[in-house]
Amino acid sequence: MWAKVACQKGGWARARQHANIRRANPSNAERQAQEALAEAFPGAVIEPEYEIHNGQYPQWIDILLTVAGQRIAIEVDGSHGWHNTSPDARGKMGQYDLDKAAWCKRNGLPLVRVKKGQIGKLPKMIEAIIPQK
Question: pLDDT tens across 49-105, in order?
Fold first, then answer.
């Protein structure tokens, strides 16, 4: 695990500021995912850049979706290199991905990871998780 220290480039306040900027200006892939979810699940609650606390430092889930009473964490993996390499080669960002997965498991939330090119499949991935009527 990474040490319990604030981000060296501005601390947690800066990290939270960055999350607020990303809420207002999501990546193209995150925006496409949000739009696909809104279209497929009218009335669902879509919370971008949802802050979680893992006991060491705050992190953000790309999208927290609440649909049919089920909360689902969604991570949109863009073209960044750390999502396309082995966990050991990812360094700090890879550790963040592992930490988010552990947080979701501890809190009973399914975690869906979707790659940039698979966003069209996201609604079907979610339908496989939500309780059937």
Answer: 898 887 677 788 999 999 999 999 999 987 555 444 455 555 667 778 888 899 999
CA–CA distance, 91 with 93 (Å, rounded to integer): 6
- In sequence order, the β-bridge partners of residue 74 are 63, 112
- Residue 128, amino acid: A
Spatial contact of 71 and 78, defined as CB atoms under 8 Å apart: no
The reported pLDDT for the residue numbered 58 is 78
Q: Is residue 14 part of a domain?
A: no
Three-state SS letters, 53-104: ECCCCEEEEEEEEEECCEEEEEEEECCCHHHCCCHHHCHHHHHHHHHHHHHH
Residue with tokens 């909360």: 71
**What pLDDT does residue 11 have?**
66
Q: What is the CATH number of the domain that holds 75?
A: 3.40.1350.10
pTM: 0.79
In a domain, 8, yes or no: no
> Residue 91's domain spans which residues?
28-127
43 is a domain residue: yes
- Domain membership flag for residue 1: no
